[in-house]
Amino acid sequence: MIDTHSHIYLEQFDEDRNEVMKRAVDAGITDIYMPAIDLDSIAQMANLEYEGIAFHKMAGLHPCDVGEELEKDFYGSLMHWVEQPDILGVGETGLDYYWSTDHIDNQKTSLRLHCKAARESNKPVIIHNRESTSDMLDIIEEEQDGSLKGIWHCYNGTVDEGKRAIDLGLHLGIGGVVTFKNGGVDKTVTELPLDKMVLETDAPYLSPAPNRGKRNEPSFMKYTAEKLAELFGLSLDELDKKTSDTACILFDKPII
Predict the structure, then answer these.
(1) Which residue intervals of the chain are DSSP H helices?
(2) d(Cα 141, Cα 139) in Å, to the nearest integer?
(3) Residue whose C-alpha is closest to residue 34's, from 43, 102, 169
(4) Fewest C-beta in 10 Å: which of 70, 77, 155, 172?
(5) Is the pLDDT of residue 256 over 80?
(6) Of 24, 232, 35, whose CA–CA distance to 152 is shortest?
(7) How distant, in Å, are the alpha carbons of 71, 105, 141, 229 from that of 66?
């Protein structure tokens, strides 16, 4: 299985990262894609290694880290990293109106710059979205020139919003929320194409049931995969194959 969104480099894992990785291998995780929170995150990712797991880096600025003004020549700094061959994605970026609406214009500017970087590099953009779906999709529509690709991370929209996102070139990142009894995602995903979905954890956040409320980790993705397989009437192996192939194609990696 491929975890397309994990912050395994964060300090929450400093004390037991090897044990976490062992559990990931035991659960069948082969690849972990690591979105950045800010450009300093890339250094935290640099030395991660564990036998049996391939770690893949991304570069970007989380919308909750967008302040009163963007760094001077932020786009140049972003592209410096995005153009590196070991950076496989752009983000995470996006919009978040839940935690703060103080810097919405700058969040929108940042999202547009990440989309530009994704187009220029032909790498997927990873989009965080919280209480901002309409604005997020409008911006993606405006930035889409036929080449933009990416993931709506932690998809939790309506069926129509999911269809619009797919029509705009996005894939849907399915994480622990699909296992929540009142999350609603379990009601919408079966109305959307499985071949446009990838699995993710968002570790250490959004742990799936039965571990909701605990620190999330890559091995817990098996619960998300099991739930999604159940919803689509597939075996776990079939679900793993379909979502892993999709992730490999999206990130321009050989199919496992």
Answers:
(1) 17-26, 41-45, 74-82, 104-121, 133-143, 159-167, 185-188, 221-232, 236-250
(2) 5
(3) 43
(4) 77
(5) no
(6) 35
(7) 9, 10, 22, 37
pLDDT digits (tens, 9 = 90+) for 121-155: 999 999 999 999 999 999 999 999 999 999 999 99
- Model pLDDT, residue 72: 87
| C-alpha–C-alpha distance, residues 203 and 17, integer Å | 12
The pTM (predicted TM-score) of the whole model is 0.97
Model confidence at 237, pLDDT cuts 50, 70, 90, reads: very high
Domains belonging to the chain, first-starting first, are 2-250 (3.20.20.140)
Pull the structure tokens for residue 43: 């250094």
**What does the pLDDT look like over 59-110, one tens digit per residue?**
999 999 998 888 889 999 999 999 999 999 999 999 999 988 889 999 999 9
Residues β-bridged to residue 90: 59, 125
What are the counts of helices (DSSP H) followed by strands (DSSP E) for the chain? 9, 8
